[in-house]
Amino acid sequence: MSDKSSYWRANLRLVALCLVIWFVVSYLFGIILVDELNSIRIGGYKLGFWFAQQGSIYTFVALIFFYAYRMGKLDREHDVHEDK
Amino acid sequence: MSLQATTYLVVGLTFAIYIGIAIWSRASTTKDFYVAGTGVHPVANGMATAADWMSAASFISMAGLIAFMGYGGSVFLMGWTGGYVLLAMLLAPYLRKFGKFTVPEFIGDRYYSKAARIVAVICLIVASVTYVIGQMKGIGVAFSRFLELDYNSGLLIGMGIVFIYAVLGGMKGITYTQIAQYCVLIVAYTIPAIFISISLTGNPIPQLGLGSSMEDGVFLLDRLDQVLRDLGFTEYTTAKRLSSLNMFAYTFSLMIGTAGLPHVIIRFFTVPKVKDARSSAGWALVFIAILYTTAPSVAAMARLNLIETVNLPSGEQLAIEDVPTWMTKWEETGLLGWEDKDGDGKLVYTADPATNELVKVDRDIMVLANPEIARLPNWVIALVAAGGLAAALSTAAGLLLAISSAISHDLLKGVFKPDITEQQELLASRIAMAGAIVLAGYLGFNPPDFAAGTVALAFGLAASSIFPVLMLGIFYKRMNKEGAIAGMIAGLGVTLLYVFQHKGIMFIPGTSYMGGMSENWFLGIEPNAFGAVGALVNFAVALIVSRVTAAPPEHIQHLVEDIRVPHGAQAAVEH
């Protein structure tokens, strides 16, 4: 198996993981399960409402930086990074 | 100093800064005009992308829509931020590695077809022009209020300013100007939010204020729910937008539309390296999130303040002779209206259309009126006006650039007239810009929806046409030109038919061939959200057609393998 294709598969695994989290915080918590989560409260926020209007956005930001960091590591491990 | 004088001063000052920067860094070559060299730092690029991205829809319109939709407005918040996750992971780094100027250029090369490139140009123009209509609506609202004119005159003046502004500079000018514009718009958005949050909850951070309690110990959101229930409205925190399925489709359409809009994608061509394209998307979202997490607070607090302006907290109703100045000023623009139906000299605001006397509240005035409703000082109100204009102008300029480069670079130079000189290409792109402004401005006199709704339509069009073929082009080596072309046409076609059917052909009122009948909505999905369905059609058609036609040539499969690895990336090149 060539290094390029193992790099690509590792990349796809990482993307899949990130997109599962992306889906869970927005579509699942913010829309599908919103009524159930609204019975839990943090301060004045109902939890489902909080995910839809605040929590999902914070998670998205963290996800992109997590992905960028992990990809940087993958690039070097598989020796496909720029400036070498 | 009067409010109007202060507004002139603040708006004039910020404009002087943008125009100064635009002239100082004026584009002289086509390369400068399109991509600003490739030396822009990821943080700076993120900030400029945020300004490019956050338009009149985000700044002027969104919080007003959320104020009246409550929880249902979350589709904008999630949809317009979640797309960056897709952009960072599925498109930006690969398109940066590919190293060209425009989105149609990638599609033309990846699908080894001039026809694919032309179809991509058409999709891009349809989506971008619709988007500019939304900006024109926002600009028209802002100018009509601050020059104290009616909406149509405000729109005309706005068109003139966008014209001067966008035709002058290119991308290079725009990148630096946009950093300045981001600073203006974010300060203008957060300062009134902080003031209002302090006055309602004592908490200076709006994101926390929204979840805090008010003076009497009741949580702000509970109070809002209570007040709305009493007036006969649905509860703020649980009001769905039609149905969960519709909200799902709406959010999905906005997310993939984000990742398919050419003026956003083009920004990732300007970072020095592939790894910068990834982090640049993250930085852009950081700067966007500052506004997007503040917006829900602005929305809820503005709604509460609006209600308490008419239905006074003391239990009294607002007497007509006590109507505050901000209401009379907005009434002059034709965007706010009231009517003393029972003739008792007092106003009533309720959910019942028969007795409600606040008969018209254009959602797009809420953010601009908000500081006045909360009785903040004049300079804050002026600042908000400047911020709204910065947001609308920066996005309009970015979009116009995408439209003009599609016409001059992709159509003229790329397809029809390859021997065109640089000067001719620049001239053509400026003419294209002017044409787009006139068209969008004309359609802006009767916009299909509030600013954010119109922009949502544009996202649906981008989602259904461009995103699927970009993604398949990178992730599915077997995707060929037949599949891509059929997919784009099918996706855009389905979405346009559905939208025009309900909103009018080219959004001209009275031409909707089946009326705006919501009972005819497919699965109850509103036109603004239909891009999600269009995108699924695009994916399905592309995959099926590519299966039954010949595989792409060998060199294209190598090209795809090559863009998947960062190693060997060059600066964006001319060819």
Mind explaining what this structure looks like?
The complex is a heterodimer of chains A (84) and B (575). With 84 residues, chain A is mostly helical. Chain A has one domain. Chain A contains three helices and two strands, in the order ααββα. Chain A has a two-stranded antiparallel sheet. In chain A, strand 1 and strand 2 form a beta hairpin. In chain A, helix 1 packs antiparallel against helix 3. Chain A starts with a helix and ends in a 7-residue tail after the last helix. In chain B, the strands form two sheets. A two-stranded antiparallel ribbon of chain B has the order 1-3. The longest helix of chain B has 39 residues. The N and C termini of chain B lie far apart (56 Å). Classes of the chains: A mainly alpha (84), B mainly alpha (575).
Strand order of the largest sheet of chain A: 1-2
The CATH topology of the domain at 3-309 and 373-445 in chain B turns out to be Sodium/glucose cotransporter
Beta fraction of chain A: under 5%
Instruction: Count the beta strands of chain B.
Output: 4
Which spans of chain B have pLDDT < 50 for at least 5 consecutive residues? none
Strand content of chain B: under 5%
State the main characteristics.
heterodimer; A: 84 residues; mainly alpha; two-stranded antiparallel sheet; B: 575 residues; two-stranded antiparallel ribbon; 4 strands
SSE topology sketch:
The complex is a heterodimer of chains A (84) and B (575).
Chain A: H1 3-32, H2 34-37, E1 41-42, E2 45-46, H3 47-77
Helix pairs in contact in A: 1-3
Chain B: H1 3-24, H2 30-35, H3 42-53, H4 56-69, H5 74-98, H6 103-110, H7 114-146, H8 151-168, H9 171-201, H10 206-209, H11 220-231, H12 244-258, H13 262-265, H14 274-310, E1 318-319, H15 325-333, E2 336-337, E3 346-347, E4 360-361, H16 366-373, H17 378-416, H18 422-444, H19 451-475, H20 481-503, H21 531-548, H22 554-563
